[in-house]
Design a protein that fits this description.
This protein has about 300 residues and is of the alpha+beta class. About 20% of the residues lie in helices and about 30% in strands. α2 packs across α4 and α3 crosses α4. The radius of gyration is 24 Å and the shape is elongated.
Length: about 300
Amino acid sequence: MKAHLGDRLVIERTTTGASKRDGEIVGLHHEDGTPPYDVRWSDTDEVTLVFPGPDAHIHHLEHGLPATSQAPSRPGTAEAESAPRGTSGPGDIGRRVAVERHRRNLSREETARRARMAPGYLAYLEEQPADPTMATLIRLADVLGTTVTALRGGGVDLPPGRGQALLHPSLRDIGPEECRTLLSTHGIGRIAVSTADGRPAVVPVNYDVIDDTIVFRTAPNTTPAAAVGSEVAFEVDHMDEALSRGWSVLAVGPASVVTEPRAVHRLTELAHSTPWPGTGREMWVSIRPAQLTGRRITPADG
């Protein structure tokens, strides 16, 4: 018996009155595809280690071409032709693959090697509209430490943290230096402010860290602009949904508006991104952290 990731294990019950059971193979323990397997059962959604018996058989997915024969540097290959349709917009999957690959500091060549596909096809997938097969998505999700659902955008409207808790979690404090390192990975953070009517509010902003100062752009009379002239809390985090681990950093300090023309010009030149809400947000706000704290959750032996 041999299987690939994404194949279904079907167990035909021989006991009178018992129905058969099936599940998706989500983990292999041998490179040649022989048992045992990690199986996510369709009736419970639980993952268990399975040593198939004589009443079990494998229902194979339609897998792509082997890496040695793949040459999908253009549309019209077997990978593209047999892909599921209508699951997300053109190019969305490729953009998510590229983001996860960069997040894990994997080169395109290394990712393709681990996913058993040609680098040319991965390049095409990331750069052009493409609909890869389910087998390809399963291999990529496994390499990138995520899920097929996440790569296809099925969880974009769901908050993180729905994964199972670790068996032996370890929650530890993060020191100031590590907090600075994690905070310096620019992206999306959340700022907590008191609004004009005295009510608390937490809003996301695109931020950068320049000269050890948190900076972001907004517009006057917006909620983030209420930070100016007061002490605020700024939080950034990262959650690995697939592995149920992550970290968070909290910075507390005074916020001020940047008005000096040369300083504004320098921030604009050094910024890595523009505000997602669009144009009209040219007011720079800076937060100089007076206190940095953080926590990280990992397996106890990690």
